[in-house]
């Protein structure tokens, strides 16, 4: 399973969150993680970004684990002023069908640490590529691995498919 969602602290709040999925990379900003008002509202440092990212991973995992066949979960990864990036996960009899896409829901309109109802209902999701069939255990393990990287930065090397944080990833929007 080629999926990771990690933070590479470059001390700018921009271009420091990386989603790797199906051989592609999307570079995102941690800005909305830093200003998240639901978790550690008094700080805006790298520890907070990591804590919010861990909470987002927990929400991802909870959302996909509770799905029954043909039900859908939307997993946000890119929080921008005028839209958001998502993974749509549709439960199948053997796992999930996962596709990356976008929505016009603004990144400022909800907190990464408290996604809420958008996890299961996103009206204007637009897919940006083919769906990938993924075994349930593989997707859940990939989410757990990414959460471990956020909580324990030294584990970043252990995530499958994760390249060196200093490498310049391909930007895809």
Classification by helices and strands: alpha+beta
Tell me the overall shape: globular
What is the count of helical runs?
3
H/E series: EEEHHEEEEEH
Explain what you see.
The chain is of the alpha+beta class. The protein is 23% helix and 28% strand. It contains three helices and eight strands. The strands form two sheets. Strands 4, 5, 6, 7 and 8 form a five-stranded antiparallel sheet that branches. A hairpin with a 3-residue loop joins β5 and β6. α2 packs antiparallel against α3.
Q: What attributes does this structure have?
A:
alpha+beta; disordered C terminus; globular; 23% helix; three-stranded antiparallel sheet; 173 residues
Task: Set down the secondary structure blueprint.
Layout: E1 3-7, E2 17-21, E3 24-28, H1 31-34, H2 46-65, E4 72-80, E5 83-91, E6 95-103, E7 126-127, E8 132-135, H3 136-151
Antiparallel strand pairs: 1-2, 2-3, 4-5, 5-6, 6-7, 6-8
Describe this structure in a few short sentences:
It is built from 3 helices and 8 strands; from the N terminus they run βββααβββββα.
């Amino acid at each position: 399973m080629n999926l990771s969602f990690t933070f590479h602290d470059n001390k700018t709040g921009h271009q420091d969150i990386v989603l790797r999925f199906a051989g592609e990379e999307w570079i995102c900003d941690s800005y909305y993680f830093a200003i998240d008002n639901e978790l550690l509202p008094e700080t805006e440092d790298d520890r907070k970004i990591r804590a919010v990212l861990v909470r987002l991973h927990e929400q991802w995992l909870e959302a996909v684990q509770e799905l029954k066949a043909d039900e859908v979960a939307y997993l946000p990864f890119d929080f921008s002023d005028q839209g958001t990036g998502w993974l749509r996960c549709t439960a199948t009899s053997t796992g999930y069908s996962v596709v990356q896409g976008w929505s016009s829901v603004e990144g400022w309109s909800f907190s990464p640490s408290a996604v809420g109802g958008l996890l299961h209902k996103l009206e204007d999701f637009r897919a940006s590529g083919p769906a990938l069939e993924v075994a349930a255990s593989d997707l859940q393990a990939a989410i757990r691995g990414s959460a471990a990287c956020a909580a324990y930065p030294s584990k970043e090397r252990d995530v499958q498919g994760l390249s060196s944080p200093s490498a310049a990833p391909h930007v895809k929007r």
